[in-house]
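We emphasize that the prediction below concerns an isolated chain of 409 residues; any contacts that depend on oligomerization or on bound cofactors are therefore not represented. The input was used exactly as deposited, without trimming of termini.
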Amino acid sequence: MPLIAGFGMLIHTKSRRTQNYKKAVSGTASFSGKGKNWALYCPATFDYKFALNYFASDPNNNETLLMQPGIPKGVAIRYIGTAMQSFFDFCGWNKRNIAVGGSASFDFASTANVIAYQKPVTTVNAPQIKQVSETDETLEFYRRDCEERGGDGHQVLLKNGRWRMYDGNLRSIVEENNDDYARTSDGYLRIKHIYHTSVGEFLVMHVEYGLYDYIPQNPKSSFNSYTIGTYNIQRASRRPYNTFSAEDEYIDTEIGFQQIEGCKKILVEQTDADYPVPYTYFVEPEQGYFIAYMNKRYASTFKLTYINDNGQTIGQPLTIDLSGTQKSAVAESKLSVSQNGVALHYKLSPQIENLNGQYTICNMNNTMHRKQGEVQSSNGVISIIDLPKGIYTFSITCNGKTYSTKWMK
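Result of the prediction step, given as a token string:
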């Protein structure tokens, strides 16, 4: 449950980025308001998921327990009381109705005070807006399901903001449609338990919030783009050399994926139409995409499996067939490179006048080792000191054409 605050966001200058990075690894970052001070999560080793977006870890602080990294599994009670009022003021939440007790108020929208449009309307047969009555049953059911207190029982949060009741066997209802349920950034389902106890002649409401460890969501993948590839040692090693033809055109295909909250690793099973033996490999979930090597003359099918400690979820196969497209526009110019471990020297021959393009450097075995940028010259130098050893592709794209080569650091 990240803080709704602007830490580390909308940074426009290099100096601001440097300052925020220093705060994110300082171990002492905090912010204050109304006489209260809150320590923020900012470990010495930068954590891009949680740094400055969560409160500092403190299992004894019940007020911020569900807004700390490493939220405990099981059930935790979050206290929303006067001690947190200054925090609500700081975030601008003090003017909102927050249901924390036995009753709550809800304000319905109204068009009674809207000023009529003063200019003539020229649209013919403009549709009439149907006003919804406050007694409409659908609206009432939705309002009730979105209440923070809700009815007694066990509930799980849906992505649309509504709470769904369950009888104790949460797994049985989640399996019906795994994608319907809200997740934390690390993949937990959000649950709560509401019950009442008697204190004398009064009833006291209890709301316990918890997290449920579950299998990943259903994988969703899509074809993004492709660039011209060349002979790939890793792929070629798994198939006989005589399966390659001079008519073949090899491409590096970028495939994106979503819904990775809680996913620890992704298994890709690639089956090429020109070779019947499936090829399996792992990719990093945080990247958001991976580069697949395929033959443009034949279709390839990709099946993604999301995996975490609770199990796995297999996605629907994605088939990419580019055999009907025109042959890729590869210019007659040749791209050559040399490197000394610190800098990559590239040269297009013959040169292209007024070159204004984009370059991409990508590790063939680990797509997280990747660099991108702009090039304005047919002959230049790019720093590669931060890239580890390995086999890389280097591509320049300009005027709708791609020049590509591979090199080893």
